[in-house]
Design goal:
- The protein is α/β, with parallel strands linked by helices.
- The protein has twelve helices and 15 strands.
- Strands 1, 2, 3, 4, 5, 6 and 15 form a seven-stranded mixed beta sheet that branches. A five-stranded parallel beta sheet has the order 7-14-8-9-10, covered by helices on one side. A three-stranded antiparallel beta sheet has the order 11-12-13, with no helix packed on it.
- Strand 5 and strand 6 form a beta hairpin.
- Helix 1 runs parallel beside helix 11.
- The chain starts with a strand and ends with a helix.
- The C terminus is likely disordered.
């Protein structure tokens, strides 16, 4: 049986990896848990990116879709999905290669446990076994090389101190919004919204919710003196605008927005059709009764997929160790200045297994699509002379 390259996830990086495999003549299959490509992008489709079209389209996509928009205009998530990624998925080179509604539940080396054959050729040549959840039930697939491009957006962080769930959070999980709210549905957010987080997603939500006349925002920020991720002489106007707006809200520019800095969630409890939230603040305990809770405290990838593989994770970021070391050692936190870490940093102790895209950055929030496309370039270059491996597993 001819084995394939397994690509997990049909987002921008997974689709670019598929094009790279098609260009190289390597057999491949893309496994996508949703019923469409770019499911994560569509989940925040109403939000406009900071980065322009030219930073969000790979050279492989551009070569096959020359009419894709160019220039400094910044697309929304929905525009990126419908004007770029849907046409990519419809290309003849990808026909029949994407298996929708098929989630990879776990990955292992066929016949080997995690601790066996460490660093040996035996382990390197054993195929991967993928456990699949499909519309028809569980199934098994094999591959010689696996690219995990599953992203992070479906695995949000929790609200409690130190990153664990706050008491009551799990019981109220179905009443907590963990994605960017769409404020075009203004009635949906009437009343008091408790917003938690200080990153760009939370800043976007604060800006948009503050514009709704029927909404009051109680914004909880962990740091006592947040810098809002300001970048000196920022060249991305949309990002700078968010910083300016957040500073203004923290300074009291909108009387329907209260910003609680140096605060964190202690507990949540139901209060009839509302939620009571206990806060720890610099001034002492504080309670808020709210109609909605929006938790935007970041996202991390699902590491359980490769629990049985030999993956060396950074103890601080959760990213692959070599990637994390390269990024943490670079100067500055601007996504536009992050280095291309190189193929050696992308490799794992598990041969032929790569974590690419936003998931490769772990808890670091400086990933750009451009970086993911560079990762695909590095992967292709490293395997350019290995067609026999990819087609026969030897």
């Amino acid at each position: 049986m001819q084995r394939h390259v397994a690509i997990l996830g049909a987002g921008p990086i997974g689709l670019d990896a598929a094009l790279a495999c098609a260009d190289a003549g390597w057999p491949f299959t893309v496994y996508e848990a949703a019923d469409t490509v770019a499911a994560h992008l569509r989940a925040w489709g109403h939000v406009r990116l900071f980065t322009p079209w030219d930073l969000n389209v790979s050279h492989r996509m551009r070569a096959r879709l020359p009419d894709t928009p160019t220039g400094d205009g910044c697309p929304t998530g929905a525009e990126l999905a419908t004007r770029l990624l849907d046409p990519v998925a419809a290309l003849p080179a990808l026909e029949g290669r994407i298996r929708y509604r098929t989630r990879v539940a776990a990955i292992a080396r066929t016949g080997l446990l995690k601790h066996e054959q460490i660093g040996t050729g035996t382990r390197a040549t054993a195929p991967f076994t993928l456990l699949l959840d499909t519309p028809d039930g569980e199934a098994i697939a094999e591959a010689d090389l696996v690219l995990d491009c599953t992203g992070t957006y479906s695995h949000p962080n929790t609200l409690g101190p130190g990153g664990i769930p706050a008491p009551g959070e799990r019981a109220l999980a179905d009443r907590i919004t963990r994605t960017l709210p769409n404020t075009e549905e203004s009635d949906r957010w009437a009343g008091t919204v408790l917003l938690v987080g200080a990153g760009k997603s939370a800043q976007t939500a604060a800006r948009d919710l503050a514009g709704l006349p029927g909404t009051r925002v109680e914004w909880v920020v962990r740091k006592p003196a947040p810098d809002w991720g300001a970048v000196p002489d920022d060249t991305l106007p949309g990002r700078q605008h968010l910083v300016d707006t957040s500073r203004a809200l923290a300074d009291g520019a909108n009387d329907r927005v209260a910003v609680h800095t140096g605060a964190y969630i202690q507990a949540l409890s139901p209060e009839s059709d509302r939620i009571r939230v206990a806060l720890a603040t610099e001034g002492g305990p504080h309670e808020i009764s709210c109609d909605h809770v929006v938790a935007l405290t970041g996202y991390t990838g699902d590491a359980s997929l490769y629990r049985q593989l030999q993956v060396h994770e950074c103890y601080a970021t959760g990213a692959p160790m070599n990637v994390s070391a390269a990024l943490l050692g670079s100067a500055g936190g601007d996504c536009l200045t992050q280095p291309a870490v190189g193929i050696d940093a992308l490799r794992n102790p598990e041969p032929h297994f790569f974590i690419l895209g936003a998931k490769s950055y772990g808890r670091l929030n400086t990933f750009l699509l451009r970086t993911g496309y560079q990762q695909i370039d590095q992967f292709v270059a490293a395997y350019a002379d290995a067609p026999r491996l990819l087609s026969t597993g030897t």
